[in-house]
Amino acid sequence: MTAATLSRPAELAGARLTFPGILRSEWIKFRSLRSTWFSLLAAVAIVDGLGTLFAALHAHKVSGNGGRIVVLDFDATQVSLRGVFLAQLAIGVLGVLVITGEYGTGMIRSSLAAVPHRRPVLVAKAIVFAGPVFVVSFAATLLGFLLGQLAQASTHHQASLSTPGAWRAIIGAALYLTLIGVLGVGLGFVIRNTAGAIAALFGVVLVAPLLAQALPSPYDSDVSKYLPLNFGQRIIQTVHPEPNLLGPWAGLGMLALYVLVALIAGAVMLTRRDA
Predict the structure, then answer these.
(1) pTM of the predicted model, to two decimals?
(2) For 122-141, how does the pLDDT look when each residue is reduced to its tens digit (9 = 90+)?
(3) Is residue 14 one of the residues assigned to a domain?
(4) Domains held by the chain: number
């Protein structure tokens, strides 16, 4: 009687601790943060606003040049998606804050007390972050592409969804933003400090390409082609791609490897350190 009575609550408690349950709890925390909605709205506004602005400025320049345009060197798709490279700031910071915010408030202790094995928390946070961010990013890049092409209609050289490489650029740009954000999640677990994790993230994404340019040839191009910023540039190019860069999907695959390494490092640190 006593043994059965004692084992029953333990069994029920174990039944409640499921991975879908962990996902639900992480989703509730993710959507309840104001920083989530502010960052996502900022990313959408940047992608669509800057993409449309760049496209409109290009169209204005062409109109002022008597309508002359070098068609072979012009990439209407790339022009409309340039805002992605500023939007990555908002998405990357959000990825960091999702983790370091909990460390800063001490809420991470409650999360790890509920999930003693710890690693499912990291996996759940990464999944809960990546899903909504990709959906929002895809909507933003698709709308940015359409608005950008509308702004370039006066040039008569705008792209369309049937243009070769257009869908790849739209989807790839959304994947790029999502991976940059998940990279921020991994670095947040590794560093556990907001300023430090943001500095590390944008040191890799923005500063490393500048440092690589200071290297003598051919080391500059050899190093640059393996840096995240060039992966993003390559995925949105549809005309005359840079021959020294990796292919569009190979570049995103390499970025996914960056993310995997950061998440593995975060998992190791999560299991070895106190909350």
Answers:
(1) 0.90
(2) 999 999 999 999 999 999 99
(3) no
(4) 1
